[in-house]
Amino acid sequence: MFARHWILLIAGLLAAPSFVLDAASMRAVAAAAALDEEEVAPPADGKVVEISILKLRAARYRPGQPLPKWISDLDGKRVRIWGHMAIGTLEGLEAFELVPESCECNRSKLNHFVDVTLTEGQTRFIPGRITLEGTFFAGEKEEDGFVTSLYRLTTTELPR
C-alpha cells in the first residue's frame, strides 16, 4: 500500500508540468484571439513590413476559413521576419522551414512555420536566429488534396 502512494505521488508530479503547459496554452489562445484583430500597417512606398513569426504562430486557423485580416493583408507584401531553420534542414536545396524556436521540428501545426524558398541561393544550415527579407504569401496551399502550408516567403538567399 505504501509503494502505491509513492507511485501515485510520482505520477502526479510528472503530470503537473502538462497542467502548466495546458494553462500556458490557454493563455496563448486568449492572446491569439486578441492578435486576430490586430492591424499591421501597410508598407508605404514599397518599404518592408516587420512581422513576427510568434504572432503568425498564435493566429487562429481553421481549415477552409479565411485567415485573420491582418495576415491576409500581408499577402504579396515585402516583409522582414526572424526565426530559426528547422532542425533537419538539408543543405543544397532551395527551400526550408522557418520556425519560431530552434528546438522545433516537424510540422506540428500549419501556422507554426513559414515555408521559405530561395530564388538565387541554396540552403546551408545556420544555427541560431536568422532574419530574412522577402515577399510573403498567406493562404492555404494544397498539394494532393492536403493543405501543406499557410505561410510562404520567397527570398533571394540566406544571410551571410
Characterization of the model:
The protein is of the alpha/beta class and 160 residues long. It has a domain at 49-155: OB fold (Dihydrolipoamide Acetyltransferase, E2P), CATH 2.40.50. Helix content is 28%, strand content 28%. The protein has 3 helices and 6 strands. The protein has helices at 2-36, 53-58, 69-72; strands at 49-50, 78-85, 95-99, 114-118, 129-143, 146-155. The chain has a 5-stranded mixed beta barrel with strand order 2-3-4-6-5. Strand 5 and strand 6 form a beta hairpin. The radius of gyration is 19 Å and the shape is globular. The model is unreliable at 16-22 and 32-37 (pLDDT under 50).
Fraction of residues in H or I helices: 25-40%
Helical run tally: 3
Structural class: alpha/beta
Look at the structure and give the CATH class of one domain. Answer: Mainly Beta
What sort of overall outline do the alpha carbons produce when their principal axes are compared?
A: globular
Features:
single chain, five-stranded mixed beta barrel, 160 residues, alpha/beta, OB fold (Dihydrolipoamide Acetyltransferase, E2P), globular
Secondary structure layout plus pairing:
Layout: H1 2-36, E1 49-50, H2 53-58, H3 69-72, E2 78-85, E3 95-99, E4 114-118, E5 129-143, E6 146-155
Parallel strand pairs: 1-2, 4-6
Antiparallel strand pairs: 2-3, 2-5, 3-4, 5-6
Task: Offer a quick outline of the entry.
The chain has 160 residues and is α/β, with parallel strands linked by helices. The chain contains three helices and six strands; from the N terminus they run αβααβββββ.
